[in-house]
Amino acid sequence: MRASIFWLVTGLIWAQDPIQQQMTVTATKVAEEVHNIPAHITVLSGDELRQNGAFDLTRALSLVAGVSAVQGGDSGPNGTVPEFWGLREFDAFLLVVDGVPWGGAFNPALTSLSLEDVERIEIMRGSAPVMFGATSFVGVINVIHKDANAKSNFVRVGAGSYGSGNASLLYSLPDMGKSHHRIEVNADKKGFEDDRTEAGTTHFNYRFQRNLQNGVLRINLDGHFLKQDPASPHPRQGRVLTDLVDRDSNFNPQNAHLDQDRFYLGTHWERSLAGGAFSTSLGLTRTTQDNARGFLSDLGASDFNAVGYTQDVEINDYYWDAHWSKRGNQVHWLVGADFLFGKGEQQSHNYKYYVPLDQSSIPTFGQLTGVENTELEDERSFGGLYAQTEWTPNPRFRMDIGVRFNFTEEKREGEADPFNEVEEPGVEEGGEDSQSIQRGSGTFGLSYQLQQTGKGGLWAFFDYRNAFKPAALDFGPEAEGEILDPETAESYELGLKWEQAGLFLQASAFRQDFKNLVASQSVNGLPQLVNAGTERFEGLELETRFRVTEGWNAQASYSYHDAKFRDYERLFDGVPFQLRGNRLELSARHMASASLQYNQSAGWGGFLRANYVGSRFLDKRNRAKAEGYATLSTRIHYNHKQWTLALEGENLSNRRDPVAESELGDAQYYLLDARRVKLSWSTRF
Fold first, then answer.
1. Which of 400, 364, 2 has its CA nearest to residue 196?
2. Whole-structure pTM value
């Protein structure tokens, strides 16, 4: 019986057509086949994402090995912080959109990310390649949208649980000679089971492309308007989440909001030059935020049991890159320079207030008691020179070497004054700091094809990465004038890639030693960022895709992560505690996913997907343990020649487990989004 099953499966594999060859640009900035790259890279095609209704990062990354991207958190119900290699930190990964770091010199701008018109998404583990500078440690998410010359037009509308709804239009204007124009307009409203929680987005995008005699010019104009009514994280008491408050309680003052307007202008020019290819990009971004929110601070207090703030934030980012590459018979060279500049300012008014735990009365911001006013200004620039070479002496062997020299400058000034205090001329409270770093970083990789079978084969790869990054700044309500020490990391990765007719499998083992990780801790009830000593991240990741038969596809992934503190001592209730050997909070050792999909050009289709997240600790001392959980999601759709009708269900088991820790509310956790059902209709024309 077992032999029969083996030969049946083997026959199915060999009977299938080859999986469409996947290309990637993340590792080298030049399109190359995934199996040749000495790194663990996952590529998600835009067609696949649209077939599965994956128009947000949570769904898009749901089958990627070792990656978890649940919605919600301190950035609002529309935000997310992906986890790579067992680390969920808002600045530890890099988000790239159409070749530009999306978030600039500060933090990834995930709340303004659109996946409506995606060509593909590339996910790379480990530190960013040298071409992207001092920007990340554990992963890169590279979102590539369709060019302006794409001819497909698309309309999508939908409605779902908790008053949610959306509408989007993708349209290519008629060509004007050698010029191409494409527009994207979409609006999205998302309701939640949590009290007084909602997110609304309005977004437009215009892309222009003109083919000239000696090159191609592209222009990208993007505007994103986000309005959010934030949820409250659930407090922990001792080793468990407290039952003193309801699961979906909201302790924000009335009219709490997280509103953001973001404008982006990008240009890209590429042409042939000196026997190679020259490319240069320029990106300008302006972001403004209007925030007003609050958090519980003391469940047992009878006078003031919560803190809150109102805040204005303004961030301006500039990005420039220029590089030249040339491919020879055995060697491919790429040299370039880039520059990131960011200036951010925040002004906050901090308050304290009382809110009954049964929410019988919710105060307005006008009823809160003022505590202090804070101001913070940060100006930072990251520049660098980089070079990368790929040596391929024969078709089976490849060696990559990347080197970079970084120049970073940062100036920061913070000021805090008691509420309503009139400051005397020439007197300032707070602090200021500056930091200048010149440092090298680099990568080294090897890839070797162990076996070749037709159009497939077996490849082994190894890569080493040495990276650093100036410490993150979260623009919270505090005036943190001190600049933290830069974060550094050294990582090793070893893996296999197997591609056969109808089957692709990728597996890797990794180890990363991390120093000066930026972590949050509570000081007098207010959040404060600190350097968290040294950590080690190591583990295994495995993912596979299998074409079962015509129209049927299966996917599965598994990861084992061991993320631990190596040397980090901090105070708990005034007593020093050494965290050596403890696991990082909310880092699951085991994660897995599996999906069975059926799609055809006309008729019925859909998928069934299961995700599992293992047990994890809620606290750094590893005393509060959250058990593992599994979720089930599905989609059923009917494809007509020109339109598609779909019914989707997420988290059908309605699990509400803790998935993200607040860095603003001490010992408080955001819960998994509740069961959600959605009906959508789309048409292509």
1. 364
2. 0.93
